[in-house]
Design brief:
34% helix; five-stranded mixed beta sheet; 5 strands; alpha+beta
Length: 104
């Protein structure tokens, strides 16, 4: 006998700022998408700057399209835009480290 189809899908939607991390647990209909989970989480209303930027999200650390269907236990992560180019930040840290070594 085949297993019964899922009645709902349990997911967590997360958004992290430097000063605050928010996790919203949801029960959604089967075949719900990342976009629907984010909309139902209430995070777009709580953090309006999310809606102002191009929305980028992932599941368990991997970027996915907003129309990706969710599975039970997924963790939907809303990503913030980068404020500094990663290569530039790495160069700045290297210069700072080199300066500290020469001062010792």
């Amino acid at each position: 006998m085949a297993p019964a189809p899922a009645v709902s899908v349990a997911v967590a939607v997360v958004y992290a700022l430097p000063e605050e991390q928010v996790v919203v647990n949801l029960q959604l209909a089967p075949h719900s998408t990342v976009r629907e989970a984010i909309g139902q989480s209430g995070l777009l209303q709580r953090f309006p700057r999310i809606a102002q930027s191009a929305l980028c999200a992932g599941i368990w650390g991997k970027t996915v399209a907003l129309d990706t269907p969710l599975r039970d236990g997924d963790r939907v992560e809303i990503y913030r835009p980068l404020t500094v180019d990663p290569k530039l930040a790495r160069r700045r840290r290297a210069v700072l480290r080199a300066g500290r070594k020469s001062a010792v």
